[in-house]
Amino acid sequence: MAKTFTREELKKYDGQNGNPAYVAINNRVYDVTHIPAWQDGTHHGNKAGLDLTDVLFNYSPHKDRVLAI
């Protein structure tokens, strides 16, 4: 069974101070810790530990194709 995260729990996974970097998209959580583009928990101004659904679908050039990682 998949783990469920509250928004408060997700915030802990911000990629800072040795924490893993997780992002939520469409109610699914993705571990982006080992993706070089997410070094230090940020990617093009977006921060890990947050729901980035709106950003991905409205502002990202690659839309949900990136989720095939």
Would you write up a description of this structure?
Helices cover 16% and strands 17% of the residues. The protein starts with 6 loop residues before the first helix and ends in an 11-residue tail after the last helix. The chain is an alpha+beta fold and 69 residues long. A hairpin with a 2-residue loop joins strand 3 (42-43) and strand 4 (46-47). It has one domain: Roll (Flavocytochrome B2, Chain A, domain 1), CATH 3.10.120. The longest helix has 6 residues, at 53-58. The radius of gyration is 11 Å and the shape is globular.
Helices and strands in order:
Blueprint: H1 7-11, E1 22-25, E2 28-31, E3 42-43, E4 46-47, H2 53-58
Antiparallel strand pairs: 1-2, 3-4
Side by side, the strands of the main sheet go 1-2
CATH homologous superfamily identity: Cytochrome b5-like heme/steroid binding domain
Radius of gyration: 11 Å
Strand content: 15-25%
CATH architectural group:
Roll
